[in-house]
Please model this.
Amino acid sequence: MSESTKERVIDQLCGYISQLRALPPPEHGLVASLTGGPIWEPAMICEPRLGPFSTNDEFHDCLRHDIPLSIFDKNPSWTWAPSVVHAHSLKYETKATHGDLAGRNILCKADGTITCILDWETSGWYPEYWEYTKARYFPSNGPDWIKRIGLITGEYPDQFWASVNVREHITVDPPEHYIYKEK
Model:
């Protein structure tokens, strides 16, 4: 795809995602499917269907497998922990989110005209950073995509790295316990 075609795709995505994010949420802080039910996030969370959550804090607790933020502050060897404490302590607006923006889910003509955005099963009401985090998370999206995703969703690098750190350093086995993985 030429640079001008990529720019055309990005410009259209900016408009579409802006319209999606402008939809008013049913409740401030809600994290749920677009219908208000459980979310489906198989790539990021140990359980495929979770929630709904009344607040971002409840959602963040789930992402951390209910490990309190105070535990992160008490472990100086967890050099990655401050990113999680910072990102999970902030307050966020609730935004309608596609949840899987990637080239494989965007159909377009040769000239870059978008004809369809596919794969809406992970869509829902999420904290404002979620679209950026999810779109940036998978390396298969390529460096061009990673470089441009912030133009579409806004930039949330701190939240992205916090998400990476939670996923890389915390596992649940069995689900009611947590284990810190040394790297």
In short: The chain has one domain: 3-180. Residues 3-180 form a domain with the Aminoglycoside 3'-phosphotransferase; Chain: A, domain 2 fold (CATH 3.90.1200). The two ends are 38 Å apart (CA to CA).
